[in-house]
UniProtKB/TrEMBL annotation:
This is Processive 1,2-diacylglycerol beta-glucosyltransferase. Belongs to the glycosyltransferase 28 family. The keyword Disulfide bond does not apply. Keywords: Glycosyltransferase, Transferase. GO terms for molecular function: hexosyltransferase activity. GO terms for cellular component: membrane. Residues 240-356 form the Glycosyl transferase family domain. The keyword Transferase applies. One of its GO terms (biological process) is glycolipid biosynthetic process. Residues 28-193 form the Diacylglycerol glucosyltransferase N-terminal domain. It comes from the Bacteria.
């Protein structure tokens, strides 16, 4: 059986960065835009391209994926909550992408071939999974980064191959390392947000607190109820209400407040950075990007109407940091805000907590980790993925696994980067063919590759890239506490 032709080294002339997103809500595309903006600070980047993978998919696929999520969020939130919990299991979804998604990915693959990227950043799990498939096939020779866009790293984002995996907070990094992912491949960068040079560096000081009420880009019914409840507040305040593209929501709110000069009502606006800096308190949903922008601006949040799953978890984290409170029933919103404003020093403490939580340099950190990081990907074999899933179901960390189920790492000694995570019994298969006298492995795409198990062939193809051989070191998994302490 002939060895498949491996990809050739990328074209020279500077880095070519492709940023892949998916327009499910606005957060994933906003994160992509932030990474695009950060590329301007890297002199080695010659060209950048951003692609929303749903925009080049079929209309049916775009509607099912893009709109179906919000239909469930509004009409069947319990089903969305259930689906989130199911898909949160690590490596629950293994193997190549499903045929329908694969068919809709063909335009993306063609775009990759035309652009010839040297680096690919994915801000949605769909392109992240596609990039892993292409890496394992040896179809691309680009560094790849996965960038999560919520504060909890959902298991659905985990893929079989990548160069860097970026999560929003340190606890998420510790969680992934407990699953077995190596410290050198997981970074707590924060969620990428755009920077605005003209934005005020310090918060605007008001005579009375200024509240920013957001209905989101599409406009939300809860915003009308939120404004109605602020009318019952006893504390002095002013408010800006952002209604997004929903003209019906805007008309309802304008009718509700009438001539009350405490309120300023706007539709969709590109001035959110200035509004965030001029507000003292934010009222809205805890989407990953909205929350990150508020935290970077030092703006605490009153959370209303979170979508089950990731937004609820986002809110939990913000409340844990002291940067938010949640209003479980919008009818108590006015009272909740009053409690914050009337307690001496509480608003200021929440603002300080928000500023401490913010990660305004996340986009730049993502690029640094990718472009300056290892040139080879890490491969997580399917057997390793199954072991990680089984361990998580038993509430075990990866280092608790023993015998043939134990996980081991293959390390490139030239830069001490982990290039593979596999089970002990898979390692035995490789050792029979590639063991060196020094106890290391020398991986090669020679004729014995044909007699390897299919997963072993995939691993060697992805790790070697366009090299003829690679000497790797065999390392056991560190103890969970030791691994979590690494930076």
């Amino acid at each position: 059986m002939p060895v498949k032709r491996r990809p050739q080294p990328p074209v020279t002339g500077g880095e070519r960065v492709l940023i892949l997103s998916a327009g499910v809500g606005s957060g994933h595309n906003s994160a992509a835009a932030a990474v695009h903006q950060a590329c301007a600070t890297r002199t080695e980047i010659a060209e950048v391209q951003v692609l929303d993978v749903l925009q080049v998919s079929s209309a049916l696929y775009r509607d099912v994926v893009g709109k179906g999520y919000f239909v469930l969020a509004k009409g069947l939130p319990w089903l969305l909550d259930w689906a989130y919990d199911v898909s949160d299991a690590p490596f629950w979804r293994r193997g190549p992408i499903d045929p329908w998604t694969q068919a809709n990915s063909l335009p993306v693959i063609r775009a990759i071939k035309r652009f010839q990227p040297t680096a690919i950043v994915s801000t949605h799990f769909l392109p992240a999974q596609l990039m892993a498939t292409l890496l394992m096939r040896g179809s691309i020779d680009a560094k790849t980064a996965v960038v999560t866009t919520d504060y909890d790293p959902q298991g659905l984002w985990l893929t079989s191959a990548f160069h860097s995996f970026n999560v929003a907070r340190e606890e998420g990094r510790v969680e992934l390392m407990a699953l077995g992912l190596p410290a050198d491949r997981v970074a707590a960068t924060g969620i990428p947000i755009s920077s605005y040079p003209d934005a005020e560096s310090d918060r605007v000081v008001h005579d009375v607190p200024h509240i920013l009420i957001s209905a989101g880009a599409a406009g939300g019914d809860y915003a009308v109820a939120a404004v109605r409840q602020t009318l019952h507040m006893r504390s002095a305040f002013t408010a800006t209400v952002v209604c997004g593209h929903n003209e019906e929501t805007r008309a309802d709110i304008e009718k509700l407040v009438g001539t009350d000069d405490r309120f300023h009502i706007v539709g969709f606006t590109t001035e959110m950075p200035a509004l965030l800096r001029s507000a003292d308190l934010f009222v809205g949903k805890p989407g990953g990007l909205s929350a990150s922008e508020c935290m970077a601006a030092g703006l605490p949040m009153v959370l209303v109407n979170p979508i089950p799953g990731q937004e609820v978890r986002n809110g939990d984290y913000l409340m844990e940091q002291g940067a938010a409170v949640r209003c479980n029933d919008v009818t108590t919103l006015g009272w909740k805000i009053d409690q914050i404003l009337r307690e001496p020093g509480r608003l200021e403490r929440m603002q300080a907590a928000a500023k401490k939580t913010g990660r305004p340099d996340a986009a730049a950190d993502v690029l640094t980790g990718l472009l300056d990081g290892p040139r080879r990907p890490i491969v997580v074999t399917r057997d390793a993925q199954k072991a990680i899933l089984a361990a998580s179901e038993r509430r075990l960390v990866a280092s608790d696994l023993r015998g043939d189920s134990a996980l081991v790492r293959l390390t490139d000694p030239t830069d001490n980067s982990t290039v593979a995570l596999l089970k002990a019994d898979e390692l035995k298969d490789l050792q029979k063919r590639y063991a060196s006298a020094e106890g290391e492995l020398v991986l090669r795409p020679d004729q014995t590759l044909a007699s390897l198990r299919w997963e072993g062939r995939r691993l060697i193809r992805a790790v070697l890239r366009h090299d003829d051989s690679l000497r790797v070191r065999i390392d056991p998994l560190p103890h969970a506490a030791t691994g979590a302490s690494q930076r």
